[in-house]
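Annual report, structural modelling task.

Input specification for the NAP complex:
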Amino acid sequence: MNGKLVTIFGGSGFIGKTLVQHLAKAGYRVRVAVRHPNNALFVKPLGDLGQIHIAQANTRNKASVVAAVRGSDIVINLVGVLYESGKQSFQKVHVDGAGLIAEVSTQMGVDKLVHLSSIGADDEAASKYSRSKAAGEALVKENFPGATIIRPSIIFGPDDNFFNKFAAFAKMFRMLPVICGDTKFQPVYVGDVATAIENILSSDKAAGKTYELGGPKVYSFRELLEMVNKVTEQDVLLIPVPIQIAYFKAFFLGMLPNPMVTMDQIRSMEVDNVASGAGLEDLGVNPTPVEAIVPNYLVHFKPSGQFKAAH
Ligand SMILES: NC(=O)c1ccc[n+]([C@@H]2O[C@H](COP(=O)([O-])OP(=O)(O)OC[C@H]3O[C@@H](n4cnc5c(N)ncnc54)[C@H](OP(=O)(O)O)[C@@H]3O)[C@@H](O)[C@H]2O)c1
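The model returned the following structure:
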C-alpha cells in the first residue's frame, strides 16, 4: 500500500464504485463518505481486508464533513444529484456542499482535491443543474485554488443511468422517444474516468486545472438511441417528440419521486455535451469506444439474452 488516505464523498455511487476499486488496487487507503453507510457496505470487498472504510457524512452537515476529511491526504468529491428533491437541492448539494468540502479540505491541510463537475457548467446556462455546477466550481476554486476540476460528458458503464435507462424504456414501451435528436454527446467510459482521476493523484501536473472528459467519438442523441435499439435487437420505433410536448410531459413526470425526465434535464439536452480543451489524453488515458463496452452489458435486454434466438 502507498499508505495515503483518500476520502471519496459519494464513493458509493456509479463513478464511486469503479473509482474505489481503482484506488484500492493502486494501494491507497480509501474512506467512502456517504449519507447511508449501510447502503454502501458493498464497497468494502472492493479492496483488501481493512483497506476500505465507510464514514457517515452528509455534505449538508459541516461536522460530518470535518470528521470525514480528518487525516485525509486526498479528497475527491463525487456528490451530485440529477434532479432536486426535498433538502437535496442543486444549491445545497452542488454549490454549498462542494464549497464546504473545499473549505474544510484547506483548513485540514489536505494535499489534493478533485471535484466532479460536468460539461456544460456555465453561469449563463438555461438549466439550473448546469448553473449550479458552475457556481460549485467557482466556490471550490475560491476555497481550494489547487483543486482539479473534472467535467465529464455522459458516462457509460455497466450500471450507467443512460444506456440502461433507454434500453429498459424500449423493452417496456416498445418505442424510444427522440427529444433533441441532433444534440451531440461524447460518451466516456467510467473506467477511463477512474483512471484519469488515479493519474491526477499520482502527479502534481493537474493541480488547479480543469479537464473535460469525452470518449473517442461524438454522436447525436438519435444515433445513441439507434445504437441501443440495434445492440439490444429490440427493433422498436424511434419517435421524434417535439420540444414543446417534451416540456409538457416533463412538467408532470418531474413531480414523480424518481422522475424519468425533468424540465431542467430537457433544458440541458438542448445544448451539445462535447468536450473541449484539456481532456483524457492529457491525463494519460486512451479513450475506450462505446462499441467496445456497451453491447456487453446491454445483452440482457436482447429478446434472447446472451444466446442466439432459436430458429
Ligand atoms: N454519471 C454521469 O454520467 C455523470 C456525467 C457528468 C458528471 N457527473 C458528475 O459526477 C459526480 C458523480 O456522479 P455519479 O453518477 O457517480 O452519481 P451517483 O451515482 O448519483 O452517486 C452520488 C453519490 O453521492 C452520495 N450523496 C448524495 N447526496 C449526498 C450528500 N448530501 N452527502 C453525502 N453524500 C451524498 C450518494 O450516496 P448516498 O445517497 O448514500 O449518500 C452517492 O454515493 C456527480 O457530481 C455528477 O454530477 C456524472
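The domain at 5-157+186-216+273-283 is CATH 3.40.50.720 (Rossmann fold).
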